[in-house]
Write a structure and sequence with these properties.
This protein is of the alpha+beta class. The chain has 16 helices and 16 strands.
Amino acid sequence: MATQATEAVSFDNVRRQGPLHRILGSQITYVLAALVILMIVMTIASDKFLTERNLQNVGQNLSYIAIAALGQTLVIILAGIDLSVGSVMALGAVATSLAMTWTADWALFIDWPGLALAFGVLAGVAAGGVVGDFGNNVRWYLNGRQLSRVDIGLPAVSASRPLIEGKIRDRVRALPNVSILDGHDIVGPRASRDLRRVIGVRVTGLHGQGSQILPADLVVDATGRGSRTPLWLSDLGYAEPPADRVNIDLSYASRLFITPPELFGDDAVITTARYPGQLRGSVMQRLEGGRTLVTLIGILGERPPADLDRFTGYAQSLPVPDTYDVVRASRPLDDGVQFRFPTYVRHRYERLTDFPAGLLVTGDALCNFNPVYGQGMSIAALDATVLRDELSAGGEVDALRYFAAASKFLDAPWGIAVGADLATPGVVGTPLPPSPLTGDYVRRLQLAAVHDPELARAFLRVNSLVDPPTALLRPDVVERVDASQAAAIGSR
């Protein structure tokens, strides 16, 4: 009662104060004043602070925090409804990523931040995805040992593929200048009389709708690993692009479970990577709706089964017990599915000297990766920025210029994936150019990163495509790797 009386008196005092007095006495006022002073100081200290590019970067970074803050405000408004931080931030991250990827410049980004924020908050509340730091909330087992935990400031969003693709599809459908022709397949391109330009495509209905010609100023092949552009080029009298291939004979089986939360703790993902001498691995992800997706992996003839008993036995055969512990303690939700991926391919369109105008290739149709490494969406987003730059350059779209630009950013992730796979005896493929970043050095770095958080940070930033692979060859990184190896030898 004493507390309630005190609060009532305090509230009456505030009501009797004038509006100016309340504003000047507000904590928010002091925070805003501090921000204004900070901006003035930074503007004086650096002539780059108020540049368009810098303000864009600041706005993009703060938008993610704003989404989380707005989402958590709903918890207060709704008086205690159990809304996880992950559910808001996971889909908020997707919304922010879309805003950063789909807009050609910062002016367009400014045009619709409210839409991105609303999307992130509402989708997060409805779907409940999971998010964590890529280093601190992902349990990494490399070479059979757990990587040192370290917060690297990179959000790792764990959400199901239907959720992500559904939200993206809804966003694309909402664009006023986009039409989607469902239930049709592309039969082939339509070319000009001299075959120098693609001027459209012929499509046919899959349910008896017949065929039709869709005229186009530009055709972009985004049909994925099943792309038929190499065959179309041959039919038009052009050379097919050379291709780099890696034959890995990958198989995996996935099942959905309801898992006791204590088995994951604060982790969003648990990865048990294969390594030379160990052809099996796994990835476990917490998903929206309290579910867990467990994927068992095998290469070079190892075939993870889908039925529960053998699935559990396969999990028990892995070098660390985490996957088995989750599977045996969880309640299965489905019968599981299997998938095979024998080869991944990089089509070298940039090596062609002649290519028809009006045609480009993007995404997995250009270069597809070992799906276990989770690079596909990041690569597609990077490729989208190259496509955006080519389209905004003005004038005729130059296919060979576009392919050359795409090839430059593909070199790093391709080298990471292929280098890791070719280090496994039995995996064959197009060799990589000579590099000091050898498989032996990367393995020594990974082993050292078990006890060295800074090495773990360096490795994960490269693995997540934030830093180039050459970052692992910085003198300070090499020195730490050598010191760790020397300490290991000395302790024997």
